[in-house]
Amino acid sequence: MSVNPENQINQWIEEYDRGDLSVAHVLCDRHDANKKALLYENEAGEKQTYTYGKLKELSEKFAGVLKTHGVKKGDRVAVLLPKGPELLISVLAIWRLGAVHVPLFTAFGPQAVSYRVGNSGAETIITDAGNREKLNTMEASSFRVITASSSTEKEVPSSDTPFWEALHEAEPVHENTEVTGDDLFIIIYTSGTTGHPKGVEVPVRALAAFQGYMQFGLDLRPDDVFWNVADPGWAYGLYYGMVGPMLLGQSFIMFNAKFSVEEAYRILKEYGVTNFAAAPTVYRTLRAAGMPEGIKEDLKVRVLSSAGEPLNPDVSTWAETHFGIPVYDHYGQTEQGMVVNNHHHPKLDRPVKAGSMGQSMPGFRAAIVDDNGTELPAGEEGQLAIDTKHSPVFWFRGYYRDEEKTRERFISGGRYYLTGDTASRDEDEYVYFSGRSDDIISSSGYRIGPFEVESALMGHEAVAESGVVGVPDEQRGEIVKAHVVLLPGFTESEELAKDLSQFVKGNLSAHEYPREIEFVEELPKTPSGKIQRFLLRNS
């Protein structure tokens, strides 16, 4: 990169905050038509490659389908599709018309789908035969359905518009609808632990922040083969597994199959993946299974990145031993994208400090504040916030149709956006995650972040994963309880439980070690791989 990060950020802001934009043009049409975009494979082993030129052609025709259904600028279109070409064609077509994409994760049940469709005001839903029945409990007259064929033999209503047949017969839309940087192009719902999910409004100008992460955080280069394992039904997969690589005109992989260690290593090897991103749970799974013998020499991976929840330092150490490179931890949210990273870009690469998520990404300024919005000095734990006054690419403006929840996120007259996480920083502005505000354990006057205890447990040879919570205790208020998944070859016992407690006590601290340990087969997680500690607390 020939210019400094600040100048580059200003250039992107100018580029994506204009009044005559087309998201489809930015993500697709402006790129080399012959450049490979999507490298797709499904669980049956079927492979397809789509160039940017082919995606342009198909999405222009599908925009014609949507147009005949009455979709116009500002309309919400819900998409309940798995990873694959139909998903890319759909979203590009939506954005050609200046409409708004509402992602629906395919693991959602009917209730989750119904709420998001109803709350967003979507009147058109694009799905496939395998997911069509999830719409059956909804009032059929309130929306239009376009259904793609799938490997299932499930019947779909005759009133549905068939995806591919309609596309091939449609009159293409060659002229894209213009939008401004302030117009919405996505409404995506958070997975919150209490209450209804909240719709996050994503304006077009958020593209500046997305490009910042792709280049500064991931150091995605023109010759990279990029694989982000996250599903586009969630923020990390949507922002940085689909929108991000298209923004840069990159080649990227979509593998539509259940994750397995064997298939993961095959994809890495066969496609020559050079830039890989995944949640910590993926790395922990790879670590637990062990690397296949002799495969290391066949891999071309240059960059390993982790996001979605804090990365245990022990996992990064494992990667450095087995892949020859460490995993870099990154932090972000649905509401703002990635904001604190151990950056891969050479101009921003700094020594990685164990347990740190890194430093603020260019265009953002992270701060640690108290409940009154006063910034705290290095070493003090407080609320992780974004200083909106000094964060030119900060784009979150509110939750869709929820002014009350929006107000709760901002303090000091809007100066600080509260992430809902607790953290601290050091003198070098490295940020250290403590936990969700409601996950913090208060024991004998100490505030204990579960992540630190989980990381300590991960250093034990027997531990594959752990989830730590506070449980009521008459004497201490709360004590630390760990739910532990063991690696193959280890068997649960009282002796092992005692050994784990002493291991943490000796390696972390005398007040943070788990006084109770429960061995479990697996940890409850969200579909995106985050540990659901509230379920552990209620178990």
UniProtKB/TrEMBL annotation:
Residues 452-530 form the AMP-binding enzyme C-terminal domain. Keywords: ATP-binding, Ligase, Nucleotide-binding. It comes from the Bacteria. PROSITE patterns: AMP_BINDING. It holds the Pfam family AMP-binding_C. Belongs to the ATP-dependent AMP-binding enzyme family. This is AMP-binding protein.
